[in-house]
Known about the structure:
By secondary structure, the chain is α+β, with helices and mostly antiparallel strands. It has a single domain, classed as Nuclear Transport Factor 2, Chain: A (Roll). The chain is built from three helices and six strands. Helix 1 runs antiparallel to helix 2 (24-31) and helix 2 (24-31) crosses helix 3 (56-70).
Amino acid sequence: MSPTSSPGQTFLDEHMAYIAANDVDGMIDNQYTEDAALISPFNVLTNPPPHVVRGRDALKEFFRIYLDWQGEIAVESFYDVVMLDDSICFQAIFTSHTGRWVVGDEWYLRDGKIHRHYSFAHKLD
């Protein structure tokens, strides 16, 4: 962490590094509580979204499916970033093999890990 980086920025940078490396196990084990829940709008499971995914094992399964579906993710920008002691919220624009997206994430933290992860998305093309 550089002297100008906040703990929240470091956490976000580490999260994106896990995604770029396709290291689902590392991301979930190191950044999510055991009882974490994700609410996702992405239509990647057999049932229609929104999806409520609970617990590390289910999160790992979901993220493997999601990252396989998206392929390589190229982030164009982060904006509206807010980092508090117990939460991180941001929006981003990224491109993957599924198209160009505007996404938003809200991470509520407990003991320095994501306890609740709310995700929002809108496909641009």
